[in-house]
Write a structure and sequence with these properties.
Layout (H helix, E strand, L loop, with lengths): L3 E2 L1 H22 L8 H19 L10 E2 H25 L10 H26 L22 H17 L2 H28 L16
Antiparallel strand pairs: 1-2
Helix pairs in contact: 1-2, 1-3, 2-3, 4-5, 5-6
Amino acid sequence: PRGRLPARCAWFLQELPSFLVPALLLALRSPPRLEPLGCRLLCCLFCWHYFYRTFIYPFFTRGRPFPLQLLFFGMLFCIYNGFLQGYYLIYCAEYPNDWCTDIRFTSGLLLFLLGMGINIHSDLLLRQLRKPGEVTYKIPQGGLFTYISGANYFGEIVEWFGFAIATWSLPAFAFALFTLCCIGPRAYHHHRYYLKTFTDYPKSRKALIPFVF
């Protein structure tokens, strides 16, 4: 217990750098450089996700206490990634004035919004499984959980690949690939856990990708 923090506090501290670091980079840039409109929108997408993850999601989560070691490494990653994505968009990115109408931006934006919607909705379904004070696992139902065990993970992967397509940048694609490699296996292990733990777990469900895996 001495090496852990409550889940809400841990989530807040872990995700905060991903929102705060780009905001500080923008505040320290004189004059601010977020032109054209496409560049401002891309930066807003990144900060929007982490505003939700930092200031909204932690206050509804009911997870177990979080190990300080994992929190430390999570914060390190969020500091680095927040700096990488923010620095690229604020100091390095060059987009044409009509980037907002480019097929890469529009398709990536749609994927980002779709993934974020899936992620938020799946988190809501998971929270509704537990009563206040409960931390035990139950079989998730509804939404994409009808087809896959890791609907929340699937939504976040789609979200960041959409962001990568919209920015069309190496830092964003690296982050999307890291997200896939990090939480993809978690979805697979959750799926195996559900199958072993619940005898009535739907056998037709896949781990991460509907109808495939």
